[in-house]
Automatic annotation (TrEMBL):
The protein, known as: Ornithine carbamoyltransferase
UniProt KW keywords: Cytoplasm, Transferase
Reaction catalyzed: carbamoyl phosphate + L-ornithine = L-citrulline + phosphate + H(+)
InterPro entries: Asp/Orn_carbamoyltranf_P-bd, Asp/Orn_carbamoylTrfase, Asp/Orn_carbamoylTrfase_sf, Asp_carbamoyltransf_Asp/Orn-bd, Orn/put_carbamltrans, OTCase_ArgI
Pathway: Amino-acid biosynthesis; L-arginine biosynthesis; L-arginine from L-ornithine and carbamoyl phosphate: step 1/3
Localization per record: Cytoplasm
UniProt domain Aspartate/ornithine carbamoyltransferase carbamoyl-P binding: residue ranges: 13-151
A Pfam family matched in the record: OTCace
Positions with a binding annotation for carbamoyl phosphate: R111, H138, P139, V140, Q141, C269, L270, R297
GO cellular component, one term: cytoplasm
Binding locations of L-ornithine: N169, D229, S233, M234
GO molecular function, one term: amino acid binding
Amino acid sequence: MTATLHPPVLSGRDFLSSLDLTPQDYRAVMDTAHAMKRGEFRGQKPLDGLTLAMLFEKASLRTRTTFDVAMYQLGGHALTLTNQEIGLGTRERVSDVAQNLERWVDGIMARVYLQSTLIELAQHASVPVINGLSDSLHPVQLLADYQTLEERFGDPRGLKITYIGDGNNMANSHIQMAVLTGADVTICTPVGYEPNGKVLIDALAAGARVTLTSDLEAAVSGAQVLYTDVWISMGQEGEAERKRRAFDGYCVTPQMLDRIDADGIFLHCLPAHYGEEVVPEATEHRKSRVFDQAENRLHAQKALLYHLMADRQPRW
């Protein structure tokens, strides 16, 4: 028997940051994602007649594919727009792009260089705007990550998560998720490569359990979840050699995974730069859930789209 979808809880809102959700919102999205993965709503089309515009300043495999497939499975349509076609902030003002798109589509997902671009889109568009990645945050990835964690551990409250590597958008997003979920997050990065200071200070002020350290051995030992990301993000290629020197020793290997909790798991948001932050044997390790994590981009984003857009009426 097909289950009935619960009413959407995020109707018309933007999702630019994990902290755009309350703990109750998070629980509703996660419960929907788990149920969708189990196939409980198979065949239902709650976004029938709705369209999502997908804006890409940065290349994408997982974000593009999973949002596109998610809209199709929910009965909607996804439209891909590259920066060569739009020219956000160059060929056209961001505010103009937003005010055009809001008249044609029911939601906007943007994968961009700057968080400020997303904020401007959201300020000028009356439809939901979703952060598909920016220089500051990657919240849709964290939804998939935490779905993967819940599949293994259940409630993430108190879960010992160690992120090692660059203090980039992924590190910032892990810190925000500590606020939202109560997970115990350690960010391990070399001196000089720490995450955004305001993100960290705000999280600590909110009571989150976040530790910042450069002690790799202590951070890895006994962790229930070990997480890494590329050291050199798109647009940072000029810093490659300097970062490789700074992060020497931070590469995740099978030997490192042997030092985490016996029942622990390894995650990487992909793509992997093998030989830098990780070796292939780590993503293929028995503790790796990297490809389950990638699969969950589809289920988590499908749940997010449902909760943001399902109350909208088709335009035709």
